[in-house]
Amino acid sequence: MTAKQATVRTEEGLIGFFGHAYIEDPDAAGQKMIQYQFRIIRKMDESRYVVQYYSFLDGSPNALGVMAESELLGDTVRLYPDAETWNAAYEQSA
After folding, report:
1. What's the pTM?
2. What is the 3 state secondary structure string of the chain?
């Protein structure tokens, strides 16, 4: 998993942050695992954001989705300010 370009923080609010969404690991009771990885790319309306999902195989962008702000700020998501921190968190989880 790698972001192809360096991140420059010029956006406002949540736009531009990278993230991981976590679920319970079915093979390890009480442990969490990354369900999907994404970057917030634009605000859709007052409470929803468009996210770019990234492949676990090669780090390439592979789909768009919509996430509620409440989910992005909830306890199943971890946000990162830049691609370097996001990639390091992924490596630590593997």
Report:
1. 0.82
2. CCCCCCCCCCCCCCCCCEEEEEEECCCCCCCEEEEEEEEEEEECCCCEEEEEEECCCCCCEEEEEEEEHHHHCCCCEEEECCHHHHHHHHHHHC
Q: Which residue has the tokens 């990885």?
A: 37
Alpha carbon distances (Å) from 33 to 10, 12, 89, 92: 30, 29, 12, 11
Which residue did the predictor score with more confidence, 56 or 71?
71
d(C-alpha 19, C-alpha 36), whole Å: 8
pLDDT band at 23 (very low <50, low <70, confident <90, very high): very high
